Amino acid sequence: MNKTVPEALELARALVAELQPLTGVERVLCPPFVSLTSVAPVLANTGIDLGAQNMHWEKSGAFTGEVSPTMLQGWCQFVILGHSERRQYFGETDENVNKKVIAALAHGLTPIICVGENLAENEAGKTAEVVTRQTRAAYADLSTDQALRTVIAYEPVWAIGTGKAATPAGANAVIGLHIRGCLSDLYSSSVADAVRVLYGGSVTGANAADLMAQPDIDGALVGGASLKPAEFGAIARAASH
Question: Active site residue: 83, 107, 117, 231, which one?
């Protein structure tokens, strides 16, 4: 929840200058709802996609304050679903996330599905249990074709905004064993290998290269660093390399 609409336009222009020259990496900006229609023209014909930070699963109706997938169609290519802050502060459940994933896919949007354990769960040794449960729930009733149209982001909640990023090897292990492992059980090893999995949690220009070098980390879900164009550019360059 950052930036007024004029500030968002200024940031988007600065980010385009950093990101547009890069090749071999997919770049997506996800501003707040109020800035989507203003930022969209800035990204037009740049090769940089637009995403929303959330959405409801219903097309329309008596859900005051919510935004539907039909409202995002035509503006966005991506939508973040199940972000840890949505789960923690707004009571989103695994079941709700699954409904949103199905609705996003039905409306031509690529869902970026967030999974990850909090500090208490991490310290209690429940990382595998939590990440597997959230992944399995998010993909409930999805066909193989639908699964291949998704992106997953592993975001250990204890690492978000704390400066305490997971170690590259540690994040890679969770993604390989528990996220790709779950997808392999649900579908096949080839599907598990094909689905792109991002890491999110205190990603910076300084640690991005080490994270991207891991075999099971395909990219980053960037938080605070995305508000700093040069920093975000450094992260994207690491992914590009």
Answer: 83
Of 117, 155, 178, 231, catalytic: 155
Assign 3-class secondary structure to 133-162.
HHHHHHCCCCCHHHHCCCEEEECCHHHCCC
Calpha distance 102→115 (Å, rounded):
16
Domain 5-13+27-240 has CATH 3.30.70.3460: no
83 in active site: yes
Q: What is the pLDDT of residues 81-117, one digit of tens each?
A: 999 999 999 999 999 999 999 999 999 999 999 999 9
58 assigned to active site:
no
- Domain locations along the chain: 5-13+27-240
- Cα separation, 55 vs 103, whole angstroms: 9
Instruction: Check residue 159 and give its pLDDT.
Output: 80
- Average pLDDT over the chain, rounded to whole? 96
What is the pTM for the complete model shown?
0.96
